[in-house]
Amino acid sequence: MLLISVxxxxxxxxxxxxxxxxxxxxxxxxxxxxxxxxxxxxxDVRDFHEVKTKPCEDALHIPLPYLKRQYGxxxxxxxxxxxxxxxxxxxxxxxxSRKGVRVKGYWCL
Length: 109
Hints:
Strand content: 15-25%
Number of strands: 5
Distance between the termini: 49 Å
Structural class: alpha/beta
Number of helices: 4
Order of helices and strands: HEEHEHEHE
Shape: elongated
Largest sheet: 5 strands, parallel
Protein backbone atom coordinates (compact mmCIF):
# COMPACT_ATOMS: atom_id res chain seq x y z
CA MET A 1 0.00 0.00 0.00
CA LEU A 2 2.87 2.35 0.77
CA LEU A 3 4.45 1.62 -2.60
CA ILE A 4 1.24 2.58 -4.42
CA SER A 5 1.07 5.86 -2.49
CA VAL A 6 4.68 6.71 -3.36
CA UNK A 7 4.14 5.90 -7.04
CA UNK A 8 0.97 8.04 -7.06
CA UNK A 9 2.82 10.94 -5.44
CA UNK A 10 5.67 10.73 -7.96
CA UNK A 11 3.13 10.55 -10.81
CA UNK A 12 1.38 13.71 -9.58
CA UNK A 13 4.70 15.55 -9.31
CA UNK A 14 5.71 14.55 -12.84
CA UNK A 15 2.31 15.64 -14.21
CA UNK A 16 2.59 19.02 -12.46
CA UNK A 17 6.07 19.66 -13.89
CA UNK A 18 5.01 18.67 -17.42
CA UNK A 19 1.87 20.82 -17.16
CA UNK A 20 3.78 23.92 -16.02
CA UNK A 21 6.29 23.74 -18.87
CA UNK A 22 4.76 22.06 -21.88
CA UNK A 23 0.96 22.43 -21.86
CA UNK A 24 0.20 25.64 -23.84
CA UNK A 25 -1.48 28.56 -22.11
CA UNK A 26 -4.90 29.36 -23.58
CA UNK A 27 -5.89 32.93 -24.45
CA UNK A 28 -2.44 34.41 -25.11
CA UNK A 29 -1.91 35.29 -28.74
CA UNK A 30 1.31 35.68 -30.66
CA UNK A 31 2.21 39.26 -31.52
CA UNK A 32 3.83 39.74 -34.91
CA UNK A 33 4.06 43.50 -35.30
CA UNK A 34 4.72 46.62 -33.25
CA UNK A 35 1.23 47.98 -33.95
CA UNK A 36 -0.29 45.29 -31.72
CA UNK A 37 1.99 46.28 -28.83
CA UNK A 38 1.17 50.01 -28.67
CA UNK A 39 -1.34 49.90 -25.81
CA UNK A 40 0.52 47.26 -23.77
CA UNK A 41 3.75 47.31 -21.81
CA UNK A 42 6.63 45.17 -23.11
CA UNK A 43 8.35 42.90 -20.59
CA ASP A 44 11.45 41.01 -21.69
CA VAL A 45 11.88 37.82 -19.64
CA ARG A 46 14.76 36.37 -21.64
CA ASP A 47 18.17 35.59 -20.18
CA PHE A 48 20.82 38.34 -19.94
CA HIS A 49 22.90 36.73 -22.71
CA GLU A 50 19.97 36.68 -25.13
CA VAL A 51 19.10 40.28 -24.39
CA LYS A 52 22.68 41.33 -25.22
CA THR A 53 22.55 39.68 -28.64
CA LYS A 54 19.02 40.85 -29.57
CA PRO A 55 18.14 43.88 -27.42
CA CYS A 56 14.74 45.53 -27.27
CA GLU A 57 15.08 49.10 -25.97
CA ASP A 58 11.37 49.71 -25.30
CA ALA A 59 10.98 46.71 -22.98
CA LEU A 60 11.27 46.38 -19.23
CA HIS A 61 13.87 43.62 -18.72
CA ILE A 62 13.09 41.21 -15.87
CA PRO A 63 14.49 37.69 -16.40
CA LEU A 64 12.19 34.83 -15.39
CA PRO A 65 14.19 33.81 -12.27
CA TYR A 66 13.82 37.38 -10.92
CA LEU A 67 10.13 37.72 -11.76
CA LYS A 68 8.82 36.53 -8.38
CA ARG A 69 10.55 39.27 -6.45
CA GLN A 70 10.28 42.07 -9.03
CA TYR A 71 6.70 41.66 -10.23
CA GLY A 72 5.82 44.76 -8.21
CA UNK A 73 7.72 46.84 -10.78
CA UNK A 74 5.22 45.78 -13.45
CA UNK A 75 2.19 48.04 -13.85
CA UNK A 76 -1.12 46.18 -13.54
CA UNK A 77 -2.02 47.01 -17.15
CA UNK A 78 -1.96 44.65 -20.07
CA UNK A 79 1.51 43.38 -20.89
CA UNK A 80 3.18 41.67 -23.82
CA UNK A 81 6.07 39.42 -22.93
CA UNK A 82 9.18 38.88 -25.03
CA UNK A 83 10.35 35.27 -24.89
CA UNK A 84 12.81 33.00 -26.67
CA UNK A 85 10.79 29.76 -26.71
CA UNK A 86 7.46 28.17 -25.81
CA UNK A 87 8.60 26.83 -22.43
CA UNK A 88 9.63 30.31 -21.29
CA UNK A 89 6.28 31.66 -22.51
CA UNK A 90 4.25 29.08 -20.58
CA UNK A 91 6.19 29.56 -17.34
CA UNK A 92 6.04 33.36 -17.55
CA UNK A 93 2.34 33.61 -18.38
CA UNK A 94 1.39 31.28 -15.54
CA UNK A 95 3.57 33.12 -13.05
CA UNK A 96 2.30 36.58 -14.03
CA SER A 97 -1.32 35.44 -14.06
CA ARG A 98 -0.98 34.22 -10.47
CA LYS A 99 0.24 37.70 -9.50
CA GLY A 100 -2.73 39.43 -11.17
CA VAL A 101 -0.97 40.74 -14.28
CA ARG A 102 -2.97 40.31 -17.51
CA VAL A 103 -0.77 38.98 -20.33
CA LYS A 104 -2.20 40.19 -23.65
CA GLY A 105 0.27 38.38 -25.88
CA TYR A 106 3.80 37.19 -26.44
CA TRP A 107 6.54 38.02 -28.89
CA CYS A 108 8.99 35.22 -29.64
CA LEU A 109 12.40 36.52 -30.74
